Q: What sequence folds into this?
């Protein structure tokens, strides 16, 4: 073939751009991930620098700081400005002997030590370790014993909108927006080709269907479980992502044992109700083995029915919480050693862990979903 210099000058740049365009896309994606992780890691310094008492002379307690940021709270702590915390208060809803009592968490003025007393609806309330207590009649201040436990207060029924509850509602609204927008893009499409957000959702839905539901449950039974599997996958993933946003002070919903317990309980209920004759036979009277072995295996299989959802609950809770604890612990090294020289090392390792955490958000959603599908498949498998 004859190629002149004009053809080379004309097509070579285009050829080069076409070859390296995917590489450039991967590099840009990697840069975006690293920059996002660096943003998260640097912002976590503000988490580590926050102290309970607000007194610069108070000795830094990393354990107290880490647990303060990992557990649920009644407000969104955004940042400290001139040694004064700036936060977004949330409503406190209590049921006491005097009936329904409501007020905003700002009434405690960021106090979590039980010193600030809020008087409302004939009762006096204090906040201690992010739990609301009502002082006994005639009491005006909180009294503590040697173990630093409240001795003159009781816990009312607490229906408050905490940080995790608020973010759970936000995640539900985000999911509804995503899926309604995706459905609308399908509806407007003439050839069933989605556009916009629908083009992002479709591969994920197809992935859950083809890589999780079909292989684990079976071709003829997977469709009835798809709504639950999709809901669990996206719900866990979205909330895991929210937990990495520093401005939300790490709303750690997936790191709350109550949240993971409810999800695991749903999986357990669906598995139990879906169990066929073959499933229950393998639990109570294992086929194909001698009678003594049947009797031996029966209690083990019964215990296994409950250990499966328990492992689901603990796995998600532990993995998400551990990531937050490691990042905060690395940032705490700066304040433990009281040296700026340690800052580059802490930020570098925190950046590395944060990049892993970004990947873990999706991995943990995938693991919970695929194990749920596996349990459904075991419950509906026919004898063979």
A:
């Amino acid at each position: 073939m004859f190629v002149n210099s004009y053809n080379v000058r004309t097509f070579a740049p285009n050829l080069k751009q076409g070859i390296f365009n995917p590489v450039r896309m991967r590099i840009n994606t990697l840069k975006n991930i690293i920059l996002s992780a660096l943003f998260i890691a640097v912002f976590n310094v503000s988490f580590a620098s926050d102290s309970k008492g607000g007194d610069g002379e108070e000795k830094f307690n990393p354990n107290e700081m880490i647990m303060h940021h990992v557990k649920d709270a009644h407000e969104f702590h955004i940042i400290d400005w001139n040694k004064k915390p700036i936060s977004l208060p949330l409503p406190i809803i209590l049921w006491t002997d005097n009936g329904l009592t409501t007020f905003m968490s700002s009434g405690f003025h960021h106090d979590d030590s039980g010193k600030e007393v809020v008087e409302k609806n004939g009762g006096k309330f204090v906040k201690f370790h992010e739990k609301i207590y009502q002082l006994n009649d005639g009491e005006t201040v909180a009294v503590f014993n040697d173990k630093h436990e409240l001795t003159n207060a009781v816990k009312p029924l607490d229906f408050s909108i905490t940080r995790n509850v608020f973010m759970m509602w936000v995640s539900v609204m985000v999911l509804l927006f995503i899926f309604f927008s995706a459905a609308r893009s399908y509806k407007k499409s003439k050839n069933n080709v989605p556009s916009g957000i629908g083009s992002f959702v479709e591969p994920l839905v197809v992935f859950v269907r083809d890589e999780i539901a079909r292989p684990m449950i079976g071709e003829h039974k997977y469709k009835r479980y798809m709504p639950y599997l999709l809901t669990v996958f996206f719900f866990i993933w979205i909330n895991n992502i929210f937990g990495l946003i520093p401005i939300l002070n790490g709303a750690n919903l997936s790191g709350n044992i109550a949240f993971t317990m409810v999800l695991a309980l749903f999986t357990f209920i669906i598995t139990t109700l879906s169990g066929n004759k073959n499933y229950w036979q393998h639990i109570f009277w294992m086929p194909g083995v001698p009678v003594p072995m049947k009797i031996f295996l029966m209690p083990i299989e019964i215990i296994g029915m409950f250990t499966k959802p328990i492992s689901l609950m603990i796995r998600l809770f532990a993995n998400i919480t551990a990531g937050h604890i490691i990042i905060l612990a690395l940032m705490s090294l700066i304040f433990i050693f009281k040296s700026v020289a340690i800052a580059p090392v802490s930020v570098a390792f925190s950046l590395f862990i944060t990049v892993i955490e970004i990947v873990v958000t999706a991995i943990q959603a995938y693991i919970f979903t695929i194990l749920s599908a596996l349990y459904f498949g075991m419950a509906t498998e026919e004898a063979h």
In short: The longest strand covers residues 75-81.
